[in-house]
């Protein structure tokens, strides 16, 4: 129905301008007659135009996409270039750090080699010192034991010998060498023998003798003692004694002092001149000093002889009734009864053990 009511384009054109249609030009010679003006456009042209429009649109779109891709590619290339430069910088830093690490590693290797060589040298030196230290220790122990043996034989100093043996045993214990076990056994045996010896207080006896020597000058001589004056017969008990009675009693007392009768049960004390009294005191001191020297030398015979002579002089020339003199006589008696000479053991076993150890080390070289 639409086709019946709507006129076609050709008909509309024809109806709009029917009277004013141009007159046809005369055809040239040899040309065909013109086509009629109302002929339709070919569909092929329309398809070609549409295809051309489509191609143009695709070309424009592809160009736009190509531009975007180029921009993206340029951006990516710029980023890649930036990263490449950063990578180069990092690589340079890593290369420099590697070079420094290699230098430090070389220095460390050199120091390690030097420390290893020093350690080897120190070990060798330690071995030498260890051997020499044992030899020095044995030499020191031998010297200490020799001194202790001399003290024991000359002065009877048991304490000094025990101290020397204990020090030697402690030093061997710190060294902790199995080859010194026999030496330690010998030292311990000598220590047990010395500990079993009775103790003689030489220092105490010497101090007592020194006190006696210092007190010699203060001891009263027998010739210096005066008879005791007799007291008055009886003093008046009453407080109202007359002056004449007191005077008579005092006169009688003085008259009685004019004549003195003294009875002695022993020989008369010898009278000494002042110079003789001085030499008596000095000789007594010399006797006591001789006893002290004999004590230190453990000469019991001389010790007892000097003490006996000192006792005799005190009994003969000094006032035995005086408390100081009586105390000195008691001290001399006690010292005379004591013993100062004791058979002391020797420490030759320890000395022989030390020398054997030294000889064994010398042979082991």
Could you explain how this protein is built, in words?
This protein has 365 residues and is mainly alpha-helical. Among the domains are: 124-198 and 353-364; 200-221 and 272-343. The chain contains eleven helices and no strands. Helix 3 runs antiparallel to helix 4, helix 6 (202-215) runs antiparallel to helix 8 (274-296) and helix 8 packs antiparallel against helix 9 (300-317). It is elongated and about 210 Å long. The relative contact order is 0.08.
Oligomer: single chain
Number of strands: 0
Task: Tell me the overall shape.
Answer: elongated
Query: Radius of gyration, rounded?
Result: 72 Å
User: What are the segments in which pLDDT stays under 50 over at least 5 consecutive residues?
Assistant: 1-33, 227-239
Q: What fraction strand?
A: under 5%
Number of helices: 11
Quick check: average pLDDT?
A: 76
Task: Kindly name the structural category.
Answer: mainly alpha
- Kindly state the percentage of residues in helix: over 70%
End-to-end C-alpha gap: 142 Å
Largest sheet: none
H-E order = HHHHHHHHHHH
């Amino acid at each position: 129905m639409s086709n019946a009511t709507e006129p076609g384009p050709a008909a509309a054109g024809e109806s709009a301008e029917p009277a004013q249609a141009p007159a046809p030009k005369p055809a040239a010679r040899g040309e065909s007659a013109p086509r009629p003006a109302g002929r339709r456009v070919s569909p092929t042209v329309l398809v070609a135009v549409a295809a051309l429009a489509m191609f143009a649109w695709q070309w424009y779109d592809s160009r736009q996409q190509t531009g975007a891709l180029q921009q993206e590619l340029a951006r990516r290339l710029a980023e890649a270039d930036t990263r490449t430069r950063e990578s180069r910088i990092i690589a340079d830093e890593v290369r420099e750090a590697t070079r420094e690490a290699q230098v430090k590693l070389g220095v460390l290797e050199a120091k390690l080699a030097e420390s290893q060589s020093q350690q080897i040298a120190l070990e060798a030196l330690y071995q030498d010192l260890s051997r020499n230290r044992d030899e020095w220790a044995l030499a020191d122990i031998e010297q200490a034991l020799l001194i202790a043996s001399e003290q024991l034989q000359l002065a009877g100093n048991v304490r000094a010998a025990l101290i020397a043996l204990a020090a030697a045993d402690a030093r061997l214990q710190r060294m902790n060498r199995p080859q010194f076990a026999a030496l330690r056994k010998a030292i311990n045996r000598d220590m047990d023998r010395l500990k079993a010896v009775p103790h003689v207080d030489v220092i105490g006896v010497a101090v007592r003798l020194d006190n006696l020597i210092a007190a010699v000058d203060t001891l009263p001589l027998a010739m210096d003692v005066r008879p005791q004056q007799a007291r008055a017969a009886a003093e008046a008990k009453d407080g109202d004694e007359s002056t004449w009675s007191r005077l008579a009693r005092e006169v009688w007392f003085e008259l009685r002092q004019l004549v003195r009768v003294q009875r002695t049960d022993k020989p008369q004390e010898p009278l000494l001149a002042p110079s003789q009294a001085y030499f008596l005191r000095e000789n007594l001191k010399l006797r006591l000093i001789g006893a002290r020297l004999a004590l230190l030398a453990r000469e019991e015979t001389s010790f007892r002889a000097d003490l006996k002579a000192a006792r005799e002089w005190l009994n003969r020339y000094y006032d035995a009734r005086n408390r100081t003199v009586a105390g000195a006589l008691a001290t001399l008696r006690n010292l005379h009864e004591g013993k100062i000479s004791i058979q002391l053991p020797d420490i030759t076993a320890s000395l022989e053990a030390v020398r054997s150890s030294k000889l064994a080390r010398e042979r082991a070289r």
